[in-house]
Design a protein that fits this description.
heterodimer; A: 257 residues; mainly alpha; 11 helices; 0% strand; elongated; B: 323 residues; alpha/beta; six-stranded mixed beta sheet; disordered C terminus
Chain lengths: 257, 323
């Protein structure tokens, strides 16, 4: 109970500070919107390629963009802790009785909330410009849940990384280095059958791809729930592992104080 | 009853930085105790260990009767901490900062709202409470930090250099507030500072810290009382070797505790004014040129210099014996 209450207090603090930075919100929405509006228009004719399943690239790419945006939001999620660390805010929390877990869970919850909002905006806009979600409301909910899992997983990783590296520039570099390849070594933008063999092989080990598969399957016309369960489950395990890594990051930080 | 007991604390940071080297001291409940020392002497490290932020490599410590290593969580409930680095969330208002701090100690609802308002009022932040802390002056921010350290009515308050970087007016306000805290609320306060004046003015007992150890401890009065006579300070034209100066002044009857540090020579004399002519004469005879000479009554400054100066000498002797 205390853990949840403290986590919630922490999330509220992060959300409030976020809302006070309108520029940050605008920038973090801009990238997904550019992909949604421009990318889907530019590559509209991909659907004409022989072997492409379905007849709308927009329908295909929307779950990919939702998932990709969640991944990047998670990846930058650890940046806030560096600010706290430099300002002494983290040390102040650590000498109060706040449960150490709440410092992690609070941040991840805040990331989850932001991702839900971001996903709803993206899906709503996609629907407005003509995307179809044959899987219905349930499918869309599963897609959002998948995005939340992925953002939590990368949020945990990013938090752990930030606590170990403790330098904004280093974390930005590391996150870019990790996330850009993960985005392209997946079915975010392209169907599996149309990708080179080696990318197909690499994508099997890519959590971003697990999330795209889960989300895309969930909004499809005839949902194969075993696919959703398998990849969604792997993703949940990955998220747990990252949260554990974040706790290791905290230990490393406290040893260094 | 002791509110703080530290025994044989040791801490070495990576890169062989020895921050604490067997620090021991204790603080009586309801009193103000000052750790006085230069930057890097080990004061902040001691505070980090006593407040459960950091763990010692060796030694033990109890705060409010609770072992900091066995039950850090119980210690955290009993203490308030105002660290050297601000710790204020600059993107939040003063009221929001205080409210979150209270929530972390389990305060809620009306009791929390009332406590927050009370503290804002008391620290002169009632009007500024709704403003983002980024816009606060240094003094306001410091006051907010102290208020945050008090939100849960702790038994022991740690103030790590509470007035560093404040202008004189803000410093005086802070001093008055600290003195009042100890009086009204029966708080135990551990204060670290590198201002002698601050330690002398606020603390009932002062411990001088150098190289991770306590070199001397006592009331400001008793420490000054140990320095019989006046302090003599002589400025030299160029850095001198220990040997020549010592040889010149050793024979003088009234001169004690010679400390030579480059171009600065300090000594103690029963009657400083009377000793000056003979000191200057002896130096001149030895061919040491003098640029200035002053005599002063003992201050805590002299206590500091004397003990830290002596510690330097002892450290040198130690190395000689080893090699």
């Amino acid at each position: 109970m205390t853990l949840l209450r403290h986590s919630w207090s922490m999330s509220l603090r992060d959300l409030r500070n976020l809302v006070r930075q309108p520029w940050w919100i605008a920038i973090s929405l801009a990238q997904p919107l550019v992909y949604l509006l421009l990318y889907s228009a530019l590559f509209k004719n991909v659907a004409e390629i022989p072997g492409f399943e379905g007849d709308s690239y927009l329908d295909f790419v929307v779950p990919g963009i939702v998932v990709m945006s969640a991944m990047f939001a998670g990846g930058w999620g650890g940046m806030g802790v560096i600010n706290d660390l430099e300002r002494g805010v983290l040390d102040r929390f650590l000498v109060t009785p706040v449960s150490r877990g709440a410092l992690i869970v609070g941040r991840l919850m805040q990331g989850a909330i932001v991702t839900v909002i971001q996903s709803v905006i993206l899906i709503g806009l996609a629907w407005a410009i003509g995307a179809d979600f044959p899987g219905g409301v349930l499918g869309v909910l599963v897609l959002i849940a998948t995005a939340v899992l992925l953002t939590t997983a990368f949020g945990g990783l990013s938090l752990g990384l930030a606590l170990v590296m403790r330098k904004e520039e280093s974390v930005i570099g590391a996150v870019q280095l990790l996330l850009l390849p993960l985005m392209f070594l997946s079915t975010v933008f392209m169907q599996r059958e149309l990708m080179p063999g080696w990318i197909q092989a690499a994508s099997r080990f890519n959590p971003a791809d697990w999330a795209v598969r889960t989300g895309r399957e969930a909004v499809a016309a005839n949902v194969d729930w075993s696919v959703v369960m398998t990849y969604g489950g792997s993703l949940a395990l990955f998220a747990l592992a990252s949260a554990w890594l974040a706790t290791r990051g905290f230990r490393a930080y406290q040893r260094s104080v | 009853m002791k509110a703080i007991e530290a025994h044989g604390l040791e801490k070495t940071y990576p890169g062989d930085v020895r921050a604490l080297d067997g620090m021991s001291f204790s603080v009586e409940a309801g009193t103000i105790f000052a750790l006085l020392g230069r930057n890097g002497a080990g004061k902040s490290t001691a505070v980090k260990i006593l407040t459960t932020l950091s763990r010692p490599d060796a030694g033990e410590a109890c705060v409010a009767g609770i072992d900091v290593l066995d039950d850090p969580d119980a210690v955290r409930h009993a203490i308030g901490v105002v660290a050297q680095r601000s710790g204020v969330d600059r993107d939040a208002t003063g009221r929001e900062n205080l409210t979150l701090q209270g929530q972390l100690y389990g305060l809620r609802g009306r009791a929390l709202r009332e406590r927050v308002s009370e503290l804002l009022e008391r620290f002169g932040l009632a009007e500024a409470g709704g403003r983002i802390a980024r816009g606060y002056s240094g003094g306001m921010q410091r006051r907010l930090e102290v208020a945050m350290g008090l939100v849960h009515r702790p038994q022991v308050l740690f103030l790590d250099e509470p007035t560093t970087g404040l202008d004189p007016e803000a410093r005086t306000f802070m001093w008055e507030e600290i003195a009042r805290l100890a009086g009204d609320e029966h708080l135990t306060i551990l204060l670290t500072t590198h201002y002698l004046e601050e330690a002398e003015r606020l603390a009932e007992r002062v411990a001088i810290v150098d190289r991770g150890r306590i070199v001397v401890e006592g009331t400001p009065e008793s420490l000054k009382g140990e320095l019989r006579g006046d302090a003599i300070h002589v400025g030299l034209d160029e850095p001198e070797s220990n040997g020549r100066v010592h040889a010149a002044l050793e024979r003088l009857p009234d001169i004690r505790e010679l400390v030579l540090d480059g171009q600065s020579l300090r000594a103690r004399a029963g009657n400083g004014a009377a000793a000056i002519p003979s000191v200057l004469g002896a130096l001149e005879a030895a061919g040491v040129r003098v640029t200035a000479a002053t005599v002063s009554r003992p201050s805590l400054d002299d206590v500091y210099l004397r003990y830290v100066g002596r510690a330097f000498d002892e450290a040198e002797n130690d190395t000689k014996e080893v090699s």
